[in-house]
Design goal:
This protein is mostly helical and 477 residues long. The protein has 18 helices and 4 strands. Helix content is 59%, strand content 3%.
Length: 477
């Protein structure tokens, strides 16, 4: 049975809109024979045990993540499909170090360019998901990816690329001299100086972005030097595949604010030539959405005369073994929505993630070595989960104590004490108490009658005179 590589669908004439997926496709195309694998643009990370794409399916076994996939291919073919097999120890160390460099510095730049920049996201990136996803996931997934991208790139301090954050910064940074209170018709424009221009958020962000791009691209160009690939002229490595995924999205993305592509073309021409050559070698040229979605698995069982002619032509034009995923049904859409809701709850999210990883590592594992990273990740979920449960319990206890203190919640023991405190009145005096209650009631009725009589007299206009009579004691007179 051929291996199935599941990825996010094509974009920007590339086989995927995700850098890791592009890297996995390039790795397969350079190491695995074409008849041994199929490429599926499923765009469904729920298939992976780690809930990420790319993911490889081998029968009932699923392997998620680029590095896990490369380890699995190495063990699956006894090292024949290992692109790093010929690297010496120094090159192997450089491969590991620069792979971390791509993840730490390259992915945040892609996040800023494709997702955090509000102009690029709303005009281009968000619409890339429409042909790849069904309703309503095509409206939910892009916003989820943008939120994740903003979180990954928050440490760079470039939130002003997001118009919502920029408006917040503008509202808080009011002039200290009170010039914003002067009517617009009476204001005089001050001449723009270099210092004032550099202090504006948009110009400061451009300088910061250029600095980050230079710091990311220079080490890669120095490592490659004059070689065709990073470590040799004959065969790419896993680092070349990762670099192709990151650099191709940076170079070929057609965006309104293409600062990253502009920096590459102006400052790193040799690196651009490297990306063009490797892209042609791995993918055979441009890739469109039609390459990924026109063919269908059931067409493999049809006679050539019964297959769609357009799909046949498109499939022949592509050098990649595309197999389109089956259409999403009501069950899969409902499952996605329920999973999205469950994963939005913090404790439920960790429980589900640990459960998925444990289930994956305990059900017919391909090898103990491959599962070690997933075992460690599943174990790391436990302390976090315990801490979250303790935090929730402590918060609930404090909230309950506050409600009791404010009297909004009454404990049964306090209610009994309050009821007992109300006892001990006239009811406990027997017949004398009943007589006193009757006398008090009679006095209340007489008082009410007198008040009514006085009100009637005032209403009819009759004079009301209050006489204060002082009685003197004449006993001694």
């Amino acid at each position: 049975m051929a291996l199935e590589l599941h990825v996010w669908g094509p974009a920007f004439s590339l086989p995927s809109l995700d850098a890791q997926c592009i890297a996995a496709i390039a790795y397969f195309s350079q190491s695995v024979p074409r008849e041994k694998w199929k490429l599926v643009a499923s765009s469904d990370p729920a298939l992976s045990p780690t809930k990420e794409l790319p993911a490889v399916r081998d029968g009932s076994i699923w392997v998620g993540g680029f590095r896990n996939i490369t380890r699995y291919l190495k063990q699956f073919a006894d090292g024949k499909w290992d692109l790093d097999a010929e690297l010496d120890p120094q090159q192997g160390a450089d491969c590991t170090a620069f792979s971390a460099h791509l993840a730490a510095n390259g992915q945040p730049l892609l996040d800023l360019s494709l997702y955090v920049s509000i102009e690029n996201y709303t005009s281009i990136t968000r619409s890339l998901y429409t042909p790849l996803l069904s309703w309503p996931t095509q409206y939910i997934v892009p916003s989820q990816h943008r939120a994740a991208a903003k979180a990954r790139s928050a440490h760079l301090g470039l939130s002003t690329l997001d118009i919502d954050s920029a408006n917040d910064v503008k509202a808080t940074n009011k002039p200290a001299d009170g010039s914003d209170q002067i009517p617009a018709s009476l204001r005089t424009e001050r001449p723009q100086t270099l210092t004032s221009l550099l202090r504006q958020p948009q110009h400061a962000s451009q300088i910061r972005l250029h600095t980050l791009a230079m710091a990311f691209l220079e080490p890669l160009q120095d490592l490659r030097d004059e070689k065709r690939f990073f470590f040799s002229d004959s065969r790419p490595s896993s680092l070349d595949c990762l670099a192709l995924g990151c650099l191709s999205l940076a170079l070929y993305s057609e965006l309104p604010q293409a600062w990253l592509a502009r920096t590459m073309r102006e400052k790193f021409g040799r690196l651009c030539d490297y990306v063009d050559d490797l892209r042609q070698s791995c993918f055979g040229g441009d890739v469109s959405v039609e390459h990924a979605l026109l063919s269908h698995p059931r067409e493999a069982l049809m006679d050539p005369e019964e297959q769609d002619p357009k799909a046949q032509q498109t499939k022949q034009e592509s050098t990649l073994p595309w197999v389109a995923p089956p259409p999403a049904g009501i069950v899969s859409i409902s499952y996605f929505l329920l999973n999205s809701i469950a994963d939005s709850v913090p404790i439920s999210k960790d429980l589900r993630a640990a459960s998925r990883l444990r289930h994956y590592t305990s059900s017919d594992p391909p090898s103990a070595t491959l599962n070690q990273p997933l075992d460690a990740l599943a174990d790391s979920r436990r302390p976090n989960l315990a801490a979250q449960l303790l935090s929730v319990a402590a918060g609930a206890s404090v909230a309950f104590a506050g409600l009791v203190y404010m009297g909004l919640v009454t404990l049964p023991s306090l209610a009994r004490k309050e009821e007992e405190s109300r006892k001990g009145g006239l009811e406990d005096m027997g017949e004398a108490g009943e007589s006193l209650k009757a006398l008090a009631a009679m006095m209340d009725r007489e008082a009410r009658k007198e008040q009514l009589r006085m009100n009637d007299s005032v209403g009819k206009g009759e004079p009301v005179v209050e006489v204060d009579v002082e009685v003197q004691d004449r006993v001694g007179a």
